[in-house]
Amino acid sequence: MLILVANPLTLVGVVLVATVVLAALLADLIAPFPDHRGAVVDFVNFNKPPSVAYIMGTDVVGRDLFSRILYAYRISLLMAVVVLAIAVPIGVALGLVAGYLGGRWEYGLMRLTDIFLAIPPLVLALSILGVMKPTLLNGMIAVTAMWWPWYTRLVYNITRGEKAEGYVLAAEVTGASRFHIMFREILPNCIPALVTKMTLDAGFVILIASSLSFLGLGVQAPTPDLGSMVAEGARYLPDQWWLSVFPGLAILVAVFGFNLVGDGMRDILGGDR
């Protein structure tokens, strides 16, 4: 904690991330109109600008924008958690195998990784969702498919350097299994770099997911999603500016917060590789 206080930017990032997480977790308690997360219509109050009653205004069917942003944070954080929970283990396992075993394993796995890395991430996700129904689950699958290669490449590079170290050679001499060496000896030395990258990637996953929703390939209405809210509000600029500005700022806060925390974690853990 003292290290965080010593770095003001990291502390700002922690505050922003904590605010986003608490807003998502406590949305039922904080949201002034919790039922507005669904298919609610209130034409009496549609397109209301920010006011005391609606601090961020209302959308084109009269739903409170602040309430919908709180619930949209739940979707964004869920996307980040699920994508990283799947992509990281896959990428780590493949990177360890390729880096430590070498030979055909290295050639096959790293060429497969290079193929995925050669395709622009957003283009790959769009291609996958182009043949699938745009849902939250399919969005997670599409983003996961574009994310694991980065962890494979990261762990592969670390493993290639670590496998020549004395502690690895000592484990080999004592007859330790390959599985033990990879996951009990080498993997712990990858943790600092992995933690740093995961923290940074959480913000980027939210940004990519919002981009897919902006294009109509993410979470579908009436479920609140930051990207789709920005896309809908963009049609009414500049008159109803709040419809896209506030969801856009919500994305900015989340991404900026995770990036600041990631930079701080890199300094603290020395995870810069």
How many H/I helical runs?
Answer: 12
The CATH homologous superfamily is called MetI-like
Q: Which CATH top level class fits? A: Mainly Alpha
Enter the CATH topology name.
MetI-like fold
Question: What is the level-2 CATH architecture name?
Answer: Orthogonal Bundle
The global form is elongated
Q: Strand pairing plus helix content: what structural class? A: mainly alpha
Report the helical percentage: over 70%
Distance between the termini: 24 Å
Order of helices and strands: HHHHHHHHHHHH
Number of strands: 0
Instruction: Quote the beta fraction.
Output: under 5%
**Which sheet architecture does the biggest sheet show?**
none
Low-pLDDT residue intervals, each spanning 5 or more residues: none
Average pLDDT, all residues: 89
User: What is the rounded Rg?
Assistant: 22 Å
